[in-house]
Amino acid sequence: xxxxxxxxxxxxxxxxxxxxxxxxxxxxxxxxxxxxxxxxxxxxxxxxxxxxxxxxxxxxxxxxxxxxxxxxxxxxxxxxxxxxxxxxxxxxxxxxxxxxxxxxxxxxxxxxxxxxxxxxxxxxxxxxxxxxxxxxxxxxxxxxxxxxxxxxxxxxxxxxxxxxxxxxxxxxxxxxxxxxxxxxxxxxxxxxxxxxxxxxxxxxxxxxxxxxxxxxxxxxxxxxxxxxxxxxxxxxxxxxxxxxxxxxxxxxxxxxxxxxxxxxxxxxxxxxxxxxxxxxxxxxxxxxxxxxxxxxxxxxxxxxxxxxxxxxxxxxxxxxxxxxxxxxxxxxxxxxxxxxxxxxxxxxxxxxxxxxxxxxxxxxxxxxxxxxxxxxxxxxxxxxxxxxxxxxxxxxxxxxxxxxxxxxxxxxxxxxxxxxxxxxxxxxxxxxxxxxxxxxxxxx
Length: 444
Fold this sequence. Notes:
Elements: E1 8-9, E2 18-20, E3 23-25, E4 46-51, E5 54-59, E6 62-63, E7 66-70, H1 75-80, E8 85-88, H2 94-103, E9 107-112, H3 126-143, E10 149-156, H4 167-181, E11 187-192, H5 196-205, E12 211-215, H6 223-229, E13 236-241, H7 262-277, E14 284-290, H8 314-324, E15 334-335, E16 339-340, E17 350-351, E18 356-360, E19 363-364, E20 372-379, E21 401-402, E22 410-412, E23 418-427, E24 433-442
Parallel strand pairs: 1-4, 7-8, 7-14, 8-9, 9-10, 10-11, 11-12, 12-13, 13-14, 17-24
Antiparallel strand pairs: 2-3, 4-5, 5-6, 15-19, 16-18, 18-22, 20-23, 21-22, 23-24
C-alpha cells in the first residue's frame, strides 16, 4: 500500500527504522540514516509505522495501543481503570478537555466537526468548502502543539443521508491542510461499519487520510472480515463500539426498538470486542468504547455506561477488565428483561388507558448488597441520529406507579394514547447500577 498522508515509515530490511523526537529506532539490517526531527517542547510526535503489512501507532517514540473511551466526562476513571485515550467529536471546549486529559496522562482524538450535506452544506460551493477549511485551520493551529493531542478526526459519518461524493474531496483538503500545519499528528475520518462503496471513494479521493475510523455495534461481528475485503489496506481504529444500536434492534409492532438490559449489553460488548478488535494485531490500532458517561439517545440508558450521577453499569467493569485485567472491587447488579402484564417486549404489549397492570423484574447482587429500585415511565422518544441531534430526556410521567412491592410495581396506564416505556434502575449503594426498560403502547 502506498504511504498515506505523511505518517508511514518503512524499512527495506527485516525491521523498521525511524527517528521520533529523541528516540532512535534501529532495524536489524543496520540502517541508521534517517534524520532526527525536532519538535516543540510541548508537542508529542505521533506516527504510524508499517512493517511487512503490520501497522503500529507510535507516540513520542513508543508503541501506543489505544485503550480509549468516547465521551465528555469522567476522564479520571479512564485513567484509573487502565485506559489511555479519549475521543470527542468536535473542538468545543477543546482546551479544557485537552488540559484535563494531559493532567491525567491521557491523549485525545480531537474531532473537527465537518458540515454534512444532510444539514444543508453544499459541497459544490467551492467558496464554502474553502471557508470551512480555513475555519478548521484556526482550530488546528490553536491545538496542534498540545501534549495531549493524539490525532485529528475529520468529520463523523459524513456520508449519512447524502449523495454528493465531493465531500471526500473536501475531507482530503482538510487532511492536507492539517499535514501542512501540523506534521506531528495523523488524520482520520469515521464511517459506520464497512460501507464498501464509501470506502472506495475515501481511498480514491482522500489519500491524505492516515487512518480509517469505524463506528460499529451489532455489525461488528463481521467487521474484521468485511474490512479485509474492502479497498482500505491501511490501519484502522474502532472509534465507537458497545451494545446493539437502536437502528439495529428488534422492534415492536409500533416500531419501538427493544433495548438490551445493562447485563445483556456487557456480555454483548465483550463478545464483539473479542471477535473484531482483540483478534486483529496487524492493522487495528485500538478502540474507543461508547458511551463513557451518560447520554439521552432514543432512551436515557441506551448507550449510557453510567447514570447521570455517575453510578457504573456492568459495561464499565467490563471495559476496566479489558484495559487493565482488573476485576471490580464490587460488581454491578444482575438484571433480567422486564415483564409487564406477564409479557416481554417481544410480545408487543398493548395496554388500555387508565387500567392497572403489574410489572416484574428479576435482579440480584453478586456481592449480596441491598438493592434499591427506582421506576419511572417516559413517553417514547423520536429516534434520531445522535451524532447531530442534541436530545433531551423526556419528563417522567408522575402518579402512574404503585411501588408497594419494589420488584412488582403496579402501573396505571396513561390515559393518552401512544407509545411509552417503563424503566427500572437498580442501585447497590456501592456506586453501581443495572438498568432495563420495556416499551408499551396505550390504545383506546
